[in-house]
Amino acid sequence: MEPVALEAILAAVPGKPWAEATLEASPGTIAPNKARSWRACGINRVSLGVQSFVHQEIAATGRKHTAETVVGDLVTLRQAGVANFNIDLIAGLAGQTASSWRESLDWIERLEAPHVSVYMFEIDEDSRLGRETLLGGVRYGAANIPSETETADMYEFAVERLQALGIPRYEISNFARPGFESIHNLKYWRLLPYIGFGADAHSFDGTLRWQNVESPAEYVACGAGPRPAQANLSEEKFFVGLRLSAGIRPTVDEWRMFAAPIRRFVTEGLLESQGDTLRLTSRGVMLSNEVFQEFLNL
User: Fold this and answer.
1) Are residues 166 and 23 part of one domain?
2) 271 pLDDT above the threshold of 80
3) What is the DSSP string of 20-85?
4) CA distance 54 to 98
5) SS3 content of the chain, % helix, strand, coil (to 5)
6) Does 196 map to a domain?
7) pTM of the predicted structure, to 2 decimals
8) Are residues 27 and 175 in the same domain?
9) pLDDT in tens, 60-99
């Protein structure tokens, strides 16, 4: 999006200066004039889709940047007054090894990143890579994808390494230096209200949820979405809130309602309770989808 278009859109949003305004960007696309324009219209945080700092792994994802590109982008952002940034990394890319994963994490230390997101690679079955993997083929890097165990080991190594760097995990996929946690993402995980604008955007007012129409043309024409649906806040507290390292504080009724799965997961070492707080254990984080699904089924 050209700076003049972004400026026109953000001019309609009240409340400046905003506590946090994040823009997602691909490495290698940040020119000095763009960065200055972003800062002038209120952007104070940028999330970079780096994925990896290793050339072969970057090439396998179809990206064209290098580690040096990212260094240059961060210099540009800082010169424009944007010192708060996030770096996305993916564990489990084709050809990735424990050694190359350490190399990417070494760059996090060099760049003094305040926030890092670490995602475990998932294959889209509808993609070329997904179809090739299901068929047991070798094209598109399918033969070089690390096993689930290797990917899990990379993730757990990242947790340890980032903790040692002063960037602890505060959510399953997110790590931050104290004070640099993502404010807007925390709203989702804490079930606080938010408004989404644009095609396919979602909103939540604390009680109801709704989604805008998916087609941009339809959205421009009417902006309407399906009828708002009542949210099940107890279910969502467990499904969303347990993603946070701090855990959740169930009500008396919720402790009673979910007593059976809580007891079972505590016994299995996937959940731990301390006082009135319930949180995932380290093992529970690796099996979090299984835990979440149990609370959604009640």
Assistant:
1) yes
2) yes
3) --EEEE-TT---HHHHHHHHHTT--EEEEEEE-SSHHHHHHTT----HHHHHHHHHHHHHTT--EE
4) 12
5) 45, 15, 40
6) no
7) 0.92
8) yes
9) 777 889 999 999 999 999 999 999 999 999 999 989 999 9
